[in-house]
Write a structure and sequence with these properties.
Elements lengths: L5 H31 L4 H36 L1 H6 L3 H33 L3 H8 L5 H32 L2 H18 L4 H10 L3 H11 L5
Protein name: DUF4235 domain-containing protein
Keywords: Membrane, Transmembrane, Transmembrane helix
Organism: Streptomyces ficellus
């Protein structure tokens, strides 16, 4: 029986789309516009920091929605993850990429806050920036890499999400389940059909019925 998970899938997909799109737009649009405004480096940092600070709450909500939807879909598809060959591997890869994107996003906010405080016109912010464990030069250098790392990692998650969609096709589910079911027979010394053939050749009806059942076959 088919089961719909429209709400969970919507949270998962919309959250991921906002996460990827916002990070890419920020790297190209916000940072690019700040550099073209003229003035010194601190002036550009002040403009870019203002844009990223405004986006941060929305980005956090998008990430939260994606994680909630992803956890719900994982629970709803736990049987496929366990029984359909290939789904477990792609799910593990997606979890690793998601964790890496989360770490990169969190760290980019930490170093971005350093730049934001250092570029602020408020003397108290400048004092707070001086107490920050990361120097301004390090923060700017790390941000130049992280601004591309986050969209790259989330793009990888999007690719694996597309792969999961392909793996949900009925023919892919049948093929994956058959391959997973055949794996123990292959490890035991051959494919399911070869095991059936050997059992028949040696006149072992009891063994034949057992192998037929495991291979999903019926009849003589």
């Amino acid at each position: 029986m088919s089961q719909r998970n429209t709400v969970l899938r919507s949270l998962h997909d919309i959250g991921l789309a906002a996460w990827f799109g916002g990070s890419l737009m920020g790297a190209i649009g916000v940072n690019g516009a700040a550099r073209k405004m003229g003035g010194d480096e601190m002036f550009a940092s002040r403009i870019a920091s203002a844009g990223w600070a405004a986006w941060t709450p929305v980005n956090a909500a998008a990430i939260g929605a994606h994680l909630i939807g992803g956890a719900g879909l994982l629970g709803a598809n736990s049987a496929r993850v366990a029984n359909q060959r290939g789904v477990g591997a792609s799910t593990a890869a997606k979890a690793v990429l998601t964790a890496a994107a989360l770490a990169a996003t969190a760290y980019s906010r930490v170093v971005g806050k350093k730049v934001e405080l250092a570029a602020s016109l408020d003397p108290e912010d400048a004092e707070t920036a001086a107490d920050h464990p990361i120097t301004l030069e390090q923060a700017q250098r790390h941000l130049s890499l992280l601004q591309w790392a986050v969209p790259a990692l989330t793009a990888g998650v999007l690719v694996l999400n597309a792969l999961h969609g392909e793996q949900q096709r009925p023919e892919q589910q049948r093929l994956g389940a058959l391959r997973r079911a055949a794996s123990p027979l292959v490890m035991a010394g051959g494919t399911g059909l070869a095991a059936v053939r050997r059992a028949r050749e040696h006149g072992m009806p009891g063994r034949r019925r057992e192998v037929d059942a495991r291979a999903g076959l019926s009849g003589d």
